Amino acid sequence: TRGVAVMENGGSRLRFAVFRILAILAFLIIAFKLWDLQVVSSETYKESANRNRFRLVPVDAPRGIIYDRSGRILVRNVPSFAVNIVPAGLPEDAKAQEAVLERVADLLGMRAGPVKDSKGSEPTDAKNARGATSIKEILEERTISPYAPVRIASNVDRQAAFIIEEEHLELPGVLVEVEPLRSYTEGPLTAHTLGYVGRIPSESLQDYTERGYQPDDLVGMTGIELTQEDVLRGIKGQKHIEVDAFEREVAVIASKPPIQGYNVVLAIDTELQQAVEDALREGMHKANSEAGVAVVMDPRTGEVLAMVSLPSYDNNLFSGGISYEDYDALSSDKRHPLVNHAISGQYPPGSTYKIVTASAALEEHVIDLSTRFTCKGTLLLPNKHYPDDPEKAQEFFCWYKPGHGSLNVVGALLQSCDIFFYQVAGGYGDFQGLGVERLAAYAAMFGFGEPSGIELSGEAAGLLPSDRWKRQNYGENWFTGDTYNAAIGQGYVLATPLQVLNATNAIANGGTLYRPQLVYQIIDAQGNVIQSFKPEPIRELEVAKEHLATVREGMRRAVTQGTAWLIRLPGLAVAGKTGTAEYPALDEEGNLILDDEGNLPTHAWFTAFAPYEDPEIALVVFLEGGGEGSQVAVPVAAEIMRYYFDLPEPTPVLTK
Prior knowledge:
single chain; five-stranded antiparallel β-sheet; 656 residues
């Protein structure tokens, strides 16, 4: 019995010893863990806790305001609601997270995730047809940090924003903020000039982030908003904030205020812009034209006083993100309202181009004031391989079938005689003409064939054809007939309305080609001028003053005696050049459109300046498919001149 008791006591002591060892080990482990938490890893855990509690967030800088030259606000910032999601604030449970995204999507009229087919992938037609990117796609594309807010929607409906705020306990990670929204006060009137802002396109995201932008920043997409982006954007501020478990700001630890972007004052006169649009719209209506352009500039400086391209669009549609339906309607419109035809439309300039042909021929001494050609309405250009066979000759026509008779260069400009300029450029018989290479060189000097450099995106260069160009693009030789067509702004020659006007400016001011400019001043928020307008000459024309004076005389007489007689305004001496340019067009069945006499449809052109002796303004009017420039474009220009110079409307003539 004693032996059993001894064994039991020994076993108890052993168990107690083991327990003591285990207890000591447990306390040692706890102590080590506490030491690790409080000493070794304290900074790590402290940093993690602070990361969950504190945020360093950027504060957007107010974007600069845009004014017209008289101080009228064209673009301003108005408050609107935006919804952001902080990815780290969303529930970790997949179903709970899905419920949050579905609820937000329902309130915002979006989708939580992409449309899926039976195989779990998004069909191509769904990608093409969807009206907005899903919330999940936005998060995947634009998340740079789990704690950085991602903009899900802008310009959110007030009621939806309030509901999200009311349900914030059930919508962790979802934030409602107030953000400035661009408001374009004149809408379509200045849309092509001002452009609009939008979120950074995904294909440009890397370029912008390298320049200090955040993925959700608004940037200029077109127009002045784009070209003056660095001026308008301002400098962001920062806030060091404390947030709660729902990622909502509860305290501001420190802050650095943002610096507002500079304001931009344009050379545009809004009242003149409205008058130009009214005149152009009325002219288009009368001519049954679906697209038109009118631009007014100061030929002494290159300031753009008005620029109208119709049809236009309302750039307010793009503020906060345009709907799929609105964008589809604009992009599928065959009249291309999103295109600024003044700088991007490329058309044969027709007879407005003759001011270049005349200047080049005079400067190269191909002709002088005594040189005369006879216009009989038609000209037979012999075939160079069969010069004695009249049946193989190519027939060229003047717009005036009876013919203009004998003319010099001034008479040819006032009557816009095609046959005169055919011979001047391409030669005829023993007379050696200017030739296409010299003609193209002078046209380039006048600004054709290259962008003008105006502060707008999407400017086209036009086209100056040559022998080499035709060989490369058509695999054909250049013929004399091609030079004939180029001489009168037809054939392969293409130009923008702004290029035609800039060439007119150079004629009007005596030989200086200026860069057209829209920005008149850059000022800060206090009204201090940071940068002021300065004329920027591109080049001086290598054309003698007396030759330019001859061309100006021809343009003046085109108004007093010739094709531009409809712009004879009492008390104002106007000089101008009409143009009617044929162009190929197809009907709905793919057939070439011709009139009853077999002629192609025509664009209507007119370019002018006034007053003749000391020009203050120059303008161009273009009506796509409008018909005769002398009958259609000139009256539009007359209305613009009347408004600018405050001239009375013509008194109606009463007939019995």
